[in-house]
Known about the structure:
It is a single chain. By secondary structure, this protein is an alpha/beta fold. It has twelve helices and twelve strands. α1 (about 20-40) packs antiparallel against α8. The protein is globular, with a radius of gyration of 20 Å.
Amino acid sequence: xxxxxxxxxxxxxxxxxxxxxxxxxxxxxxxxxxxxxxxxxxxxxxxxxxxxxxxxxxxxxxxxxxxxxxxxxxxxxxxxxxxxxxxxxxxxxxxxxxxxxxxxxxxxxxxxxxxxxxxxxxxxxxxxxxxxxxxxxxxxxxxxxxxxxxxxxxxxxxxxxxxxxxxxxxxxxxxxxxxxxxxxxxxxxxxxxxxxxxxxxxxxxxxxxxxxxxxxxxxxxxxxxxxxxxxxxxxxxxxxxxxxxxxxxxxxxxxxxxxxxxxxxxxxxxxxxxxxxxxxxxxxxxxxxxxxxxxxxxxxxxxxxxxxxxxxxxxxxxxxxxxxxxxxxxxxxxxxxxxxxxxxxxxxxxxxxxxxxxxxxxxxxxxxxxxxxxxxxxxxxx
Length: 382
C-alpha cells in the first residue's frame, strides 16, 4: 500500500499527539476505547495512514488484522452519512475472527480524508450521476493506489449505497458486496406526497431544506452542535458498556465541524430525496450487478429489510439477515452480532439467509454462529 504518513500507528499513533487535530485525537480515543474494552491491553494492532491519490487528495485509511496473511481479498468498510472510520470502533476489535485483512476508509469528502470544494450543485440541482462519479472515481483511485486487485466491500447506510454504485461500475474489482442497512434500496412510493401532506410544518420545512441541499453539518457548526449530537447519541443508543457515548459524541462533533463541508456533507441531498429515497434506486440496479450481494439489517432498523427480500435474484441469489437488538447503526448497537453476520456472508453459501444473529458466540469466545430463523416469504416479489 502506498501511503502518506500521518504519524499514526493505531491505536498508539506515534509522534506527538499535540501535533494532531482534534478530530485525529477524537478518532484515536474512540478506537482505543473499543480495543481496550474487548481486549484489555492486548488485542489487534491497527495502522492509520493517508493514501495519496493522483489528483493530490488523500483518503484516510485504517488497516487491521495485519498479522493474518491470507489469500482472501480484503474486506473494505465504508461508513454512513456523517460518520467515519471511528464509528467502527466496537466492530474492529472483533473482526479478527473473520480471518481477513480489513481496511476502513473515511469516504472521500468525509472525516480525515481530503474535503475538496464541491462544485456539482446542491440538492436537486445536482446530477446524481455526476455525484456518484465524484465518490466512486476517488474510491477507484484509492484502490489503485493501494494495489488491491479485488475486495469485499462492506458498506453501511450511504456507504452501502456507494459500495453498490462502485460495484456497478467496477464489478471486476469486487468479490462480494455486504450491504449493512443500505440507503436507497426501495423506490419512493407513488403516494408519498399524499402520505406526508398532513405532517407537522417542521417536517415539511425539513424536506424543503433537504431538496435545496442544506446540510445538517451547517447547523452543528453554527448552533449548539455538541449539545445536539449529545442529545442524539444519548437518546439513540442503549446504555451498554461497549458503547462509548462521550467519546462517540466528541468524534461526531469534530467530524461534523472540522474542515470544509465538501461532498460528504452533501451526499444525503445529492443522492437521496427527502424520506431517504434514492434518486437512482438500488432496487433497479443491484439485480444487474454481477457480484454476490448480501444484506444485513438490525431487528429494530428503520430501513426496511423486506425491500431487500423483494429484489430479483439477478446472477446471484442474495441472502438477507438481521442482527438482534440493533437499529440502523448496527455496528454500534450490536457489533458482536454484526461480525457473526458478516462471517456468514463471507461463507458465500447463503447459509445465514433468514437468520437473526445475536452475537452470543463471542460470550463463549468461540466463533460459532448461533441464530434463530425468520419467517420469510417463499415467493420473490419483483
